[in-house]
Amino acid sequence: MPPRTRPAKPAALDERAAAQLAELFRAFSDTSRIRIISALADGNEKNVSALAEAADVSESAVSHHMRGLRQMRLVRARKSGRQVFYRLDGDHVVALFKQGLDHVRHG
Ligand SMILES: [Zn+2]
User: Fold this and answer.
1) Cα of 11 to ligand 1 centre, how many Å?
2) How far is the CA of 1 from the centre of ligand 1 (A)?
3) CATH class of 22-105
4) pLDDT at position 27, please?
5) 7 membership: H or E segment, kind and range
6) What are the beta bridge partners of residue 85?
7) Measured between alpha carbons, how far is residue 30 from residues 7, 10, 25, 61, 94 in Å?
8) What dihedral angle (degrees, nearest 10) is formed by the CA atoms of 81, 54, 23, 86?
9) Which of 1, 75, 78, 80 is deepest in the core (most CB within 10 A)?
């Protein structure tokens, strides 16, 4: 077979994946959510009051954001008695945050 002279045209990202990715990045479009994600980026789970303290956001605002972050599958919740503990939903969520931070910091 002769070598390819031109690379194949990449397939356009399908509309559904594009919409889901846009939705994912919307999760990062709020400074309170970013600080909550940052507070969880050490990999340790935290409850609402610990997150409020670490992210400097009110507890009611944290609770509100956690609902959205769970819906977007960025955080996972674990119930223990009356407490709910949150952590980031997988290493690639941590990586998304850290890559973004690296990008804004390298100037
Ligand atoms: Zn960069």
Assistant:
1) 24
2) 39
3) mainly alpha
4) 92
5) none
6) 47, 78
7) 39, 32, 10, 12, 17
8) -20
9) 75
Question: Which runs of E-coded beta strand occur in the chain?
Answer: 46-47, 75-80, 83-88
Note the pLDDT tens digit of each residue in 50-68. Answer: 999 999 999 999 999 999 9
What pTM does this model have?
Answer: 0.85
Ligand 1 centroid to Cα of residue 102, in Å, is: 6
Chain CA centroid to CA 74, Å:
4
Asked if the model's pLDDT at residue 5 lies above 80, the reply is no
Distances (CA, A) of 28 to 33, 83, 104: 7, 26, 13
With beta carbons less than 8 A apart as the criterion, state whether 72 and 24 touch: yes
